[in-house]
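Data availability (excerpt). The following record was deposited with the supplementary files.
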Amino acid sequence: MATEPGKRKRRGGAGGGLWSLGAAVIAAIVLLPIASVVWIAFSPSDNIWPHLLSSTLPRYLRNTVILMLSVGVLSGMVGAGAAWIITHYRFPLSRWLEWLLLLPLAIPAYVGAYALVDLLEYAGPVQTALRGLMGWQSARDYWFPEIRSLGAAVIVLSAALYPYVYLLARAAFREQSGASEEVAMSLGASAWRRFVRVGLPLARPAIAAGMAIVMMETVNDFGTVDYFAVQTLTTGIFSVWLQSNNAGGAAQIACVVLVLVIVLVTLEKSSRRRIRFFNLSRTHRPVARVQLRGATAFIATLACLAPFVMGFVLPAGVILRHALANAGRWADPALVGALANTLTVGGAAAVLTVMAGVFMVYGVRLSGRGLPRTLLPLTTIGYAAPGAVLGVGILIPLAALDHRIADTVEAVSGIDIGLVLTGSATALVLAYSVRFFAIAQGAADAAMGRVSPSLPMAARSLGRTQGQVLGQVYYPLIRGSIGSALLLVFVDCVKELPATLLLRPFNFNTLATRVHDQASLENLGDAAPAAILVIGVGLAAVGLLARANR
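Predicted structure:
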C-alpha cells in the first residue's frame, strides 16, 4: 500500500495535472479546425448543398477520384518498381540512383507543372524546335498532346510524389530475407515471377502506406490542378468560397474531402492489420544484389533514371534556366519581402509546433490516463487533412473571434484595434501548426520512447521538478530528433500553398504564393527565383531524410 501513493505522485500530482491539462488544450486546438468544418457544413447560413449536388459537386468528385487513383497507381508502380531494382541489382549509377530517386521530394508539384507547360507549350522550346525541324507553320499542321489536361496533371503529380512509395518500398525490400529469394530461384522462378509472387506480397503493407500518402497529397494539391484547369474538390472549395462568397458551401465540399481522406486512412490501416509477415529465422540474411551487364544493365539504369529526370532534372533545369536568364529579379524587393515573410512565418510555426508537440507528448506520458492517450493519435489527422480544409476550419471561427475582440476593446476603450488575428499572420501560423503537428508529435514521441524510464525517475528522486526533468534529462537526449522535426516542419511550411492562399493577410506573400501568383500570370521569369529558393529548402529536407535512412 505504501508504494501506490508514490506511484501516483510520480505520474500525476499537481504538476502532472497541469502538464496533462496543457496537453489536452493543445489537442483541442489541433482538432478544433476539423470540428469547425463539420459544424459549419451542417449549419450553413445559406444551404447550397442541393445546388452543389445537382451541378458542380459530381464533376469535382469524379475528377478528384480519377486523379487520386491514377496518381496513386502510377506512383505505386514507379516507386515499387524502382525500389525493387535498386535493392536487388547492381548496374551503372545504381549507388547514386538509390539516393537521387528521392530528390523529386524537394520540388513541389506545382513547380513541376509550371516547368512542364513552359517546356512543352506551343511557344515552348520543344514545339518550336519541331516546327523548325519539320517545316510546320502552325498547330494545324501537326498533332501535339494537350498539356493543360487531367493526364498531364497525373504525370506531374506522380513524378513529384512517387518517392513516398519508393522510400517505404525500398525499406521493405531491404528487410526481406534472402532465403525466400533463394528458394524461389531454386524452384526456377524468373525475376518477374519472384517480384510478383515473393517480393511484392511481402512489401504490400509498405507500398499501400506509400500509395495512401500519395493519394492524400493528391487530394491536397491546388497549384497543379488549378494551373492545368482540372476542377477538383480542392479547387471547388476556393471557387465556392472566394468567388461565390459562400463559406457554408465551401465547408460542405471540405467535408466531402475529409470523408475521402478518412476512407483512405481507414483502408490503409485495415490492410496493414490484415496482412502481416514475420521473419522467423534467427539470423537475417539480406538479399544479395545481382550484377547486371549489357542490355539488361542499360534497361535497369534507364528505368531508374527516367523518374529522376522527370521528377527533378526537368523541372529544376527549366526553373534554373529562367532564374539565370532573369538574374536581376533576385534583387526584387517583392522577392526579398516574400523570403522574409516565409522565414518569419515558417520559423515561428516550426518552433511553436515542435514545442507544442514535445509538451503534449510529455504531458500524456505524465498523465497515464486513457483520455489523453486517446487524443494523442487523433491529433495526427491534421496532417491528413488538406490545407484548404484547414483554411475553412480556421478562418471562419477565428474571424468571428477577431471581430468580437475588436468590438469589445472598442466598447471599453473607444479604440478600434482592427482585426489582430486574421489581419496578421496569426491564422497562417496556426494553420501550419495544425497541418504539420503530426510531424512534431511523432518525432517527440519516438525520441522520448528511446529514453530509459530510470533516468527521469532518478532525476525526480533527486528533487527535480517535472519541468526540470524535461529540460535537463529529456532535452539533451532528444535534441537531435527535435532539430530534425524543426527542419521538416519548416520545409513543409515553406512548400504549403492552399492554406497560405486562403489565410494570408492582404498584400502578404510567401515564396510559395509568389511562385503561384507569378506563374498564374504566365510570368515564369519572376516566379523562378522564388521557386529556386523553395527547391533549395526542400533539398535540405531530402538530405536529412536520406541521412536518416542510410
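Summary of structural features: The mean pLDDT is 85.
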